[in-house]
User: Fold TetR/AcrR family transcriptional regulator from Streptacidiphilus cavernicola.
Amino acid sequence: MPEAPQSPPLRADARRNVEKLRQAAADAFSEHGLDAPLETIAKRAGVSIGTIYNRFGSRDALLDQVVNELADRRVRAAMATADGTAGGAWEKLLAYVGSICQGQADDPAFNDAFSRLYPNAPALKAVCDRSLAFATELAAGARAEGALRQDVLMDDIARFFQVNGDLVRAGDDAGRRRVLALLFEGLRARPDNHPLAG
Amino acid sequence: MPEAPQSPPLRADARRNVEKLRQAAADAFSEHGLDAPLETIAKRAGVSIGTIYNRFGSRDALLDQVVNELADRRVRAAMATADGTAGGAWEKLLAYVGSICQGQADDPAFNDAFSRLYPNAPALKAVCDRSLAFATELAAGARAEGALRQDVLMDDIARFFQVNGDLVRAGDDAGRRRVLALLFEGLRARPDNHPLAG
DNA sequence: GGCTAAGTTGACGATGCCTTCAGCTTATAC
DNA sequence: GTATAAGCTGAAGGCATCGTCAACTTAGCC
Assistant:
């Protein structure tokens, strides 16, 4: 079990470095995405690259800690947006998905986190899972209302984020919005719907 | 005819190497995508990596020659599929887009060529342009029939290939089909359509 | 002030790719 | 059979990144 092995408290300078690194990493990731070189982050924090390894152990660990928080903030904001949206579950679902997608467009770090799989970042994964769970609930509501197609699965919604993320990465913001709009059209329940392929 | 700039004829062995390299490159690209290392290609052709540079000048030039042909074949096949499809322009359009997308799923080289921009591959670009022109015509027909939404632009269709390509690269074939199906639903003209965002 | 364990540093080796080029091999013409 | 230009080779140099570690620095305790 990962019983915290009672690590001795950090020295004051080390604690300061952790803080500086966290900040620098968050900035670098948000500017350049999760591929930002450690060198850049270290320089930004005013420490050497070795210190990253001393304090965090690995690139993935740093990433997990920093982006986890960043992603959590965005996801919460999107939930709040959904909750604050007038209308039924359908409207809230669109608001939620739209808000997450806008977040992906606004922040490369969030985008990479949400769409690319970073398998060695458990905390990050947890945030994404929570987000999908929330969307699942809204989708169930929207389906019950008769606004969302009956045969749309949760995986379909999850893939919206993948698609949106790829278009963000391609730098095509106009296209991103168009594709999203078309997908939303496709989600709508209609009298003449027949089952989707797949 | 593209007037050849009168370069002196190749020696027989060099001509053979060009052929072996073309073949090896086509195979490697189709197996591993356009990122296939030159080392791999050279080994496969039974020559040294230097020979690639002697014969083609650069990675991009090799790529342009080889993938251009490969892509052209796929595009022609898709056009033939569309032409052979019963129904109106709408049905042909779906058949065409579906055929290209299936090609992207079947061949990583075609996929990379069609979705990632390889800006230094002019012949390749020409193939893609021809493909889009064909789709544009079909779309115009489908719009005239009243089957395709009035406000769908050619760029929207082009982005289908981008989206499809990204999902192929993610290895999610089921998802690819679902997203495509949803997008097709979104394309359909309906009495209650109101303008798309963007 | 001095000691020492905690912490930092940055050059280094490893990886994986591209591209070059000096030196060697060989097809071809005579 | 030989000369020679065409062609081939692969080691070497680049570049960008990761992760390590021996040697140095310093916080914090006495």
Q: What stands out?
A: Residues 8, 10-11, 13-14, 17, 47-51, 54-55 of chain B lie near DNA strand D (CB under 10 Å from a C1'). Chain B has a mean pLDDT of 93. Residues 8-57 of chain B form a domain with the Arc Repressor Mutant, subunit A fold (CATH 1.10.10.60).
